[in-house]
Design a protein that fits this description.
This protein is mainly beta. The protein folds into 2 domains: 212 residues, Beta-galactosidase, Chain A, domain 5; 172 residues, Jelly Rolls (Sandwich), CATH 2.60.120. The protein is built from 4 helices and 30 strands. The longest helix is centred in the middle third of the chain and has 17 residues. The termini are far apart. The relative contact order is 0.14. About 5% of the residues have low confidence.
Length: 410
């Protein structure tokens, strides 16, 4: 605590000594659970703030657990205005670059409780990594390290002879209040944002006494700006829309006439069947070639924005007969072959269930022999072959097919 400061700082120094046994860290955070009778209004951003349901609304008799424990349908909430809502803490996740200040407001008396993170330097996953913020509880979290939206790839793993030390924080917990009788919501939020700016400008702090926290004169720096302008957030259950839109047929894109912004589903997920099981899905991309270079090698670039317990297979077809029911294998002129490419089982990002638009980025550059293509109509099939849950799937960033390098050919 600092003299004259309306709040307190919190940090931790984590260490794994060389002779200690192997160890892993999935998640580590600082959590505060506030008085549910006092703090009812939550704010994460200018356009993400509202009065929130009570934790009681999630209990049996008032709420129904949905596909996973965090998602609860409120059918008999204490306050009727929340009836029919799905409460899910992952709806309030935020990318690190935007996760600077969030918290709760009590209107009587007018008091705000805020968690301020002045820097991303100790956070895992970089500026686009998504983490939890505040949610019904009322709960406020300072996420120091998390495998959410990334899975196993982001778990810290230390061997038995691996020394390691890291400073997490400091983060600031700020309290503010009003003495007059005006509506406190906007003033307290604006004041918290200003305090956040003050903390960011003061970073790196000069008060930590630990030699493990480097002061400003021992650091370099760089700066930049990344703009993300999403107009809306995913709602609960969007993955189930795929079976409604494509109950039997494959999702298809026709190059030259289709619009990927409207014709391409947000994720290649499994299809739910009538018996509540799930089946693999295949998407098709149809395109025409004026000529096919049979002696050349084409390059298919697949960039995945996320993957969860998925296996992506690529098929290429000539003259696919309409209505033919093909198994999940490569077929060229109706001759069965193994996939031209398979990712193998990849990803534990869990982005689909957690209302995200990306997890860990994966890029695959796939060589396609020219003999697989032909003049005229061609179709590329992309199959996500794992199908035991609704949350297995991939999201695409871009897909690009490049022709052979004519300079090298010549």
């Amino acid at each position: 605590m600092l003299r004259g400061s309306s709040g307190f700082y919190n940090y931790g120094i984590y260490e794994h000594l060389e002779k200690w046994p192997a160890f892993t860290i999935d998640n580590t955070r600082i959590a505060f659970k506030l008085n549910k009778d006092k703090f009812h209004y939550m704010a994460i951003a200018d356009d993400r703030q509202r009065f929130m349901p009570l934790p009681d609304d999630r209990l049996a008799g008032r709420g129904q657990v949905l596909a996973y424990p965090e998602a609860v349908l409120l059918y008999n909430p204490v306050e009727p205005q929340f009836k029919g809502e799905v409460d899910d803490k992952y709806q309030y996740s935020c990318e690190n670059k935007d996760n600077r200040v969030h918290g709760w407001i009590c209107t009587n008396p007018p008091v705000g409780f805020w968690q301020i993170t002045p820097s991303d330097e100790f956070r895992s996953g970089g500026p686009l990594k998504q983490c939890l913020t505040s949610h019904v509880g009322p709960t406020t979290l300072a996420i120091l390290h998390s495998a959410h939206y990334s899975g196993e790839d982001m778990v810290l793993k230390f061997g038995p002879n691996e020394p390691w030390k890291k400073v997490f924080g400091p983060v600031f917990f700020y309290l503010n209040g009003l003495s007059d009788g005006d509506d406190p919501l906007i003033p307290l939020w604006e004041n918290a944002k200003q305090q956040m700016i003050n903390e960011v400008q003061a970073w790196p702090y000069d008060f930590p006494a630990s030699e493990d926290f480097q002061p400003a004169n021992q650091r370099g720096h760089f700066s930049g700006r990344l703009l993300v302008r999403d107009s809306r957030f995913r709602q609960y259950g969007l993955w189930e829309r795929y079976a409604e839109l494509y109950p039997d047929e494959r999702l298809g894109i026709q190059i030259g006439s289709s619009d990927y912004e409207t014709d391409w589903f947000f994720a290649q997920v499994t299809r739910k069947k009538d018996d509540d099981t799930y089946e693999a899905t295949t998407w098709q991309i149809k395109f025409q070639l004026d000529n096919a270079d049979e002696r050349g090698t084409y390059k298919l670039r697949l960039a995945l924005a996320t993957a969860h317990a998925s296996e992506l297979q690529k098929f290429s077809f000539h003259d696919l007969t309409d209505g033919e029911n093909l198994p999940l294998k490569v077929r060229i002129n109706k001759v069965a072959d193994p996939p031209l490419f398979s990712t193998g089982l990849i990803g534990k990002d869990n982005t689909i269930a957690r209302h995200g638009i990306h997890g860990l980025y994966r890029l695959y550059n796939i060589e396609v022999p020219g003999t697989q293509l032909q003049k005229g109509d061609n179709t590329i099939f992309l199959t996500q072959s794992e199908s035991t849950s609704p949350f297995q799937g991939v999201m695409y960033d871009y897909i690009r097919l490049e022709g052979p390098d004519q300079t090298q050919r010549n």
